[in-house]
């Protein structure tokens, strides 16, 4: 493909001339072969829409840039893009790179696209998103707007297919579950309750049809809504970097073992009723400190293990032992009586959540302890 010729045609802004060039140019014949594949989804190529996309892109970045981008796209064997999670409940003021491929960014910093606008139309950089106009599709409106996005580089291949294939057949592997697991781990910062609202795969901005089509941009179903937002400080960011990098190194069975305590700690933060908070936190505590033991003398075992695992000295261990004794009493009353005394309970639950989060952090950083060796020395 001659980049100068293509750029010159874009400069004329003539749709018929551009369509003719795309149709007859041998280097662009793949655009006439059926479907472009974004992640697990395949979209039938509409040449008129494609030509309008090139013209609109040229208005934004210049005709020469679009010609160079098309050459780059033709030369690549993959379609570069990202798996994206839209999340509420936490906020950050800058990009946080957990690895070379995985980042947490403010939701507004996502490139404008139909998927982005579907869950928060007010996050777009301008009021008249041309990509949405090109697609002729109206954005969906989410009742709970995302505050951050967790993204992972994940190129899609092959670029084109003659007919749509099933997820099992097409060979591309989504990184969505890895990001969901990491989102769950971020509960420990605060602790807080990051809430997954939606996920999709989004091609890079220079890819033809990008910002119009993506894969799987649909809302998640959830049984609890967290309308609070925990704003990360610089200290939180540094802690999250170390914690996430260690969490991502865990084996799948180790992550699975942490699933219940992380999920219940997250749900506890969403709950408003103190009884529900106590029950959720009680389940998280048992999942951490009783995951390997017989189900007898539960309160004593929890107090003993928490004190020795988290306490720095004798006095600290006494305080932690009493805290978890009080916490387990609250949990038992919540379960068996459906009510608990409000006196000092708010502070007990809050401190219990922080200590439980600290225990899970230690497990992520250092591994599960041998409880018998820890206590008996």
Description:
It is a single chain. This protein is α+β, with helices and mostly antiparallel strands and 377 residues long. It has 3 domains: 3-75, no CATH class; 81-219, no CATH class; 251-376. The protein is 50% helix and 13% strand. The chain contains 15 helices and 11 strands. The strands form 3 sheets. Strands 5-6-7-3-9-10 form a 6-stranded antiparallel β-sheet. Helix 2 (15-24) packs across helix 3 and helix 10 runs antiparallel to helix 14. It starts with a helix and ends with a helix.
Number of individual domains: 3
Q: Determine the number of helices (DSSP H or I, runs of at least 4 residues).
A: 15
- Helix and strand content put the structural class at alpha+beta
Q: What strand line-up does the widest sheet have? A: 5-6-7-3-9-10
Rg for CA atoms: 26 Å
Counting DSSP E segments of at least 2 residues, the number of strands comes to 11
Keywords:
single chain; 377 residues; alpha+beta; 3 domains; 3-stranded antiparallel sheet; 15 helices
Give me the secondary-structure topology:
Layout: H1 3-12, H2 15-24, E1 35-38, E2 41-44, H3 47-61, H4 63-75, E3 81-88, E4 90-91, E5 96-97, E6 102-106, H5 114-119, H6 130-135, E7 148-153, E8 160-161, H7 167-170, H8 176-185, E9 195-203, E10 215-219, E11 230-231, H9 234-247, H10 252-270, H11 274-289, H12 298-310, H13 314-337, H14 345-366, H15 371-376
Parallel strand pairs: 4-11
Antiparallel strand pairs: 1-2, 1-8, 3-7, 3-9, 5-6, 6-7, 9-10
Helix pairs in contact: 1-4, 2-3, 3-4, 10-11, 10-14, 11-13, 11-14, 12-13, 13-14
């Amino acid at each position: 493909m001659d980049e100068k010729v293509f750029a010159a045609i874009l400069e004329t802004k003539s749709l018929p001339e551009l369509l003719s060039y795309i149709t007859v140019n041998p280097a662009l014949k793949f655009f006439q072969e059926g479907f472009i594949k974004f992640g697990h989804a395949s979209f039938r190529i509409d040449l008129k829409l494609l030509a309008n996309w090139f013209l609109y892109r040229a208005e934004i970045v210049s005709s020469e840039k679009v010609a160079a981008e098309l050459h780059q796209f033709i030369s690549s064997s993959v379609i570069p893009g990202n798996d994206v999670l839209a999340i509420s409940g936490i906020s950050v003021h800058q990009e946080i790179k957990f690895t070379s491929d995985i980042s947490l960014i403010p939701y507004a910093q996502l490139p404008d696209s139909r998927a982005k606008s579907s869950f928060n139309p007010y996050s777009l950089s301008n009021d008249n998103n041309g990509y949405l106009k090109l697609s002729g599709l109206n954005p969906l409106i989410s009742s709970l707007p995302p505050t951050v996005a967790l993204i992972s580089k994940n190129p899609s291949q092959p670029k084109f297919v003659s007919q749509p294939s099933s997820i099992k057949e097409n060979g591309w592997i989504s990184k969505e579950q890895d990001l969901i697991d990491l989102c769950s781990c971020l509960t420990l910062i605060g602790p807080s309750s990051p809430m997954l609202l939606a996920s999709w795969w989004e091609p890079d901005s220079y890819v033809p049809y990008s910002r119009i089509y993506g894969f799987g941009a649909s809302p998640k179903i959830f049984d609890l809504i967290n309308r609070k937002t925990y704003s990360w400080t610089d200290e939180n960011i540094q802690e999250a970097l170390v914690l996430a990098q260690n969490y991502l190194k865990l084996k799948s069975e180790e992550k699975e073992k942490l699933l219940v305590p992380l999920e219940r700690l997250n749900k506890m933060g969403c709950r408003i009723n103190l009884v529900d908070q106590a029950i959720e936190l009680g389940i998280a505590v048992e999942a951490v400190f009783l995951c390997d033991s017989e189900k007898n003398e539960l309160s004593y075992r929890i107090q003993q293990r928490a004190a020795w695992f988290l306490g720095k000295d004798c006095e600290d261990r006494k305080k932690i032992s009493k805290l978890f004794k009080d916490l387990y009493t609250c949990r038992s009353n919540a379960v068996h009586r459906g009510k608990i005394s409000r006196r000092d309970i708010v502070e007990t639950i809050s401190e219990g959540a922080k200590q439980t989060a600290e225990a899970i952090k230690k497990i992520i950083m250092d591994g599960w302890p041998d409880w018998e060796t820890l206590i008996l020395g």
